[in-house]
Amino acid sequence: MEDAHTTLLKLGADGESAFFAVYDGHGGQAAAKFAGAELHNFVIKDENYTSGKFEEAIKAGYLTADGVLRENPDMTNDSSGCTAVSVLLTRDGRAFCGNAGDSRCIISNDGKAEPLSHDHKPTDDVEFNRIVSGGGFVEFGRVNGNLALSRAIGDYEFKNNRTLPAEKQIVTANPDVVECTLTSAHEFLVIACDGIWDCMSNEQVVQFVHAKVVEGKKLDQICEDMMDRCLASESELGGVGCDNMTVIIVALLNGRTEAEWYEHVKAVAEASGQKSSPKIDRPSADADMHDDSNAIINAIISRASHNADDDDADVATSDSSPHLSDAAPHVDTHADVADAPAADIPAHDQASSQKSAEAGKDDLANSPKPAEASKGDLANSPKPAEADKGDQKAAPEN
């Protein structure tokens, strides 16, 4: 399993923010594992974070993580890399989405999908120009005919021009950061790797979540159902639906109880006519070949990780948060309930899932006391509002 993820309902010494991220690995698991365990630490340790300059802190955190990983002796002959899409929810009701690569984050605003990230593909004009200026080329929609995305942590073979800063390398870890002021109209965030977005559009994902809430499903089950919808029936043939998949759903409670949140989302779904799952026309197995031939989904836990028998399951832990367990970065099938964030930060409840043919479990978070819950998590977030940045057109992947 080359994917990793982070779900922290309380980030920092005072639990003043929350942090969620997905890291889609390729060429090995080292980069994704490192990012999942450490990237958020570099963000909160940056001086800009303390002064409330969150966009600058996120950018610095990404680049610092990339630089520190590169200095690790174990990376000398390691060719792994990973995407990094993250959301930082702050005390004052803002969401900051940082993105490097082609994983994606969207927010549902009164039933409509709004992108908070922009896919970084080699054929995009900005990306293409940087690649060429850095000494690379784009062939078959790939960097140097090889890499299907143009920003990543790791992938150091594309970062060897010593005359250029990190932001101008052929492939860079420098993220785009989008700020969104949260309002009561925002219902939930969906953060996922391209294994999901290759199969479903932004609008289809929002419609899918709404339809499943109308059916009475909880977030944990919705994550699993989404994986099942995207998984190819014959994964050994490769193609769309055969990539690793990771998804996190963060419910923005906005002062509502968990039950009230589900009723609110159900009402929005019914008002917008999103009461049935969208039809998804997926290309045939040989229409879009991927490097990964296995579709893997493990469960993600709300904000804690536990040891498990399944060595393929993974979740990031952090020593920086006293609310995380000290367990190794592996997920088991037990649910964990998170405490509500401190002070005036509303609780954030999220469900997240990574899946293979077996399907793992998720968990729920929205309680001031640890308790057993089913798969899936909820989050009471500050107030959301608009998002900028449009969707990035997908480049051909051969």
From TrEMBL:
- Region: Disordered, residue numbers: 270-290, 307-398
Origin superkingdom: Eukaryota
Q: Which SUPFAM superfamilies match?
A: PP2C-like
Lineage, broadest ranks: Eukaryota, Fungi, Fungi incertae sedis, Zoopagomycota, Kickxellomycotina
Acyltransferase listed as a keyword: no
Give a single Pfam family match. PP2C
What GO MF annotations does this protein's record show?
A: metal ion binding; protein serine/threonine phosphatase activity
Q: Does the keyword Metal-binding apply?
A: yes
Which catalysed reactions does the entry list for this protein? O-phospho-L-threonyl-[protein] + H2O = L-threonyl-[protein] + phosphate
- Protein name as catalogued: protein-serine/threonine phosphatase
Instruction: List compositional bias (Low complexity) regions by residue number.
Output: 315-328, 338-351
Name the SMART domains for this protein: PP2Cc (SM00332)
Q: What family name appears in the similarity comment?
A: Belongs to the PP2C family.
Q: Give cofactor(s), names only.
A: Mg(2+); Mn(2+)
Which keywords label this protein?
Hydrolase, Manganese, Metal-binding, Protein phosphatase
